[in-house]
Amino acid sequence: MKKEIRVLGIDDGPFSFDQEKVVVIGVVMRGSGYIEGILKGEVEVDGDDSTKVLVNMINGSRYHDQVKVTMLDGIALGGFNIVDIRELYRRTKIPVITITRDLPDLNKMKETLQRKFDNWEEKWRVIEENHLLKFETSHSPIYVALAGIQENDAKEIIRISTIRGVIPEPLRVAHLIASGIVRGESHGKA
Question: I want to staple 147 with a disulfide (CB 3.0 to 4.6 A). Which of 89, 126, 158, 187 is the partner?
C-alpha cells in the first residue's frame, strides 16, 4: 500500500433536528496528511438523500479518479439519513470504510427508527447489511464497516492515514471544517 494514498474523509456539520439540511464536508488528503482538496454538499436532516448526495459529490469531483478510498464518520449523516455504503461503492467505484469510536446500540437505533420514520424498515435494512468489525488501535478500538475493500487493506489504510489518536486524519479534518463552517469555530471530536 502506498504511503501517499489519497483518501476522502466525509463528515457532517453540527445541526438541530428542526433544520431542513446539514452541511457535509469531504476532505481529500494524502496518507501523509497533505490536504489536496475540499468538497461540500448538503443532505436533509433525517432524510433519505445522503447516498445520492455523496455519489454526486464524489463523481462530480475532479479528484474522483485519484481517490482510492472514501471514509465516513459512521453510517449516517444529518441524524438518520443513512448512507448505503454498498450503493455508494457501486456508483462511485471507490471502496468505502465507515468508522465510529463506539459500538452502536443497534436495539436503540431500531427502536428510534420505528418510532420516528414511516420507512424505518428500509433504513434498518441498510444498517443491518453492515457487518461491524472491531479494529484495535494503540489507544482504543474503533468499529468499521466495509464496502469494496478487504479487511487487511482497510486496516493498513487506517494505519497510514491516522496521524495521532484513533481517527484517520481525513475524517478528523472534515469534522473540524464542517464544525467551523456551522459554528464559526471548530468544536468537538470527530
Answer: 89
